Amino acid sequence: MSSALSLAVQTKREDDLLESQYLKGVQHLCDSGITRVPSKYVLPVSERPVTKGGEKNAVDLNLKLPVIDFSQLQGPNRSQVLKSLSKACEEYGFFQLTNHGISSDVIHRMIDVGKRFFELPYEERAKYMSGDMSSPVRYGTSFNQNKDGVFCWRDFLKLMCHPLEDVIPHWPSSPVDLRQDAVTYSKQTKFLFLMVMEAILESLELVQTTENDTEDDILKEFEDGSQLMVVNCYPSCPEPDLTLGMPPHSDYGLLTLLLQDEVKGLQIQHKGKWVTVEPLPNSFVVNVGDHLEIFSNGRYKSVLHRVLVNSSKTRISVASLHSLPFHRTVEPSPKLINEANPRRYKDTDFASFLEYISSCEPKKKNFLESRKLT
Ligand SMILES: O=C(O)CCC(=O)C(=O)O
Ligand SMILES: [Fe+2]
């Protein structure tokens, strides 16, 4: 950015920055030394994290999510833990997963290499920019940069992880350790997803510990399912009350395994209020996605969440989104439909989700709402 342009950004809320500058991302904007948030990122008052009357809109409300101890699931307490799991998915749509077996070394390497990717010179990151939603690698900014009227304070690197051997050669070659660290991380999170999903099926009474064909079929499909890894970077922001790192949204898939660094920012909607999820070191925040809400016929909830930014620290998170194979239809499990519990959702698939988000601004729980039978 030229020094004249940089000066203009500093002195007034700049409205005439070219769209092409915003598309280079928030990190790039921050590197130019801005001291105010450009109007492109300023939300209407009603959508800001702090509302006008000074009411903090739950900024102060911290929430201890239900904790599921993964190691306990493997032992004699399994049925008790399954009950807690079921309650968490029904009441919060979120839980923290501890003692999950993924080492802190693997976790720290992933966060660290993700962070170093966003510290690369802009030209290096820009090699991976793509407007193609099906690209195996995509560097970009905001939430849906082609549609967002107001931009979000977030840059991202999206890595498709399935089929792994086919996509790796497309992943960034810099930092040099990114591919190796991301491969290890994606394999381990996939394995964890399968184990948690098996417990979830059991909690929905769709799988018994005894053998059954149908259940095996579902689990095999999960094994062959899609996995998308999203490294999110939320640079520190000079006016964090005016903007959001991510707008309210729900995740499309079955489950998301989210790793956050030690910086707070994630908020979930709980009992009508926005509450902040306290980071718990070495744990995963796991949330129910739209596909699991549909599959469970509404019993497990895909809950709206958003991300706040702050004025002092860059925040990094890594979300691993898992679902069924790309072309597989998602439908309420027939075993969960009966007279008392009629079918609540239309069938859907990943392709129709992509079509939906490319045709409208996904600010609310729009997609899932569009699948509901009235
Ligand atoms: O950064 C976070 O804490 C949340 C990220 C998220 O919601 C997502 O990637 O879908
Ligand atoms: Fe999300």
From TrEMBL:
Superkingdom, according to UniProt? Eukaryota
Where does the UniProt annotation locate this protein? Cytoplasm; Nucleus
Q: What are the boundaries of the signal sequence?
A: none
Indicate where this protein is primarily found.
cytoplasm
PANTHER family per the UniProt record, alphabetical: OXOGLUTARATE/IRON-DEPENDENT DIOXYGENASE
Give the protein family.
Belongs to the iron/ascorbate-dependent oxidoreductase family.
Write out the function statement from the record.
Answer: Involved in the regulation of shoot development and salicylic acid (SA) homeostasis.
Return the protein name: Fe2OG dioxygenase domain-containing protein
Q: Which organism is it from?
A: Tetracentron sinense
The beginning of the lineage is: Eukaryota, Viridiplantae, Streptophyta, Embryophyta, Tracheophyta
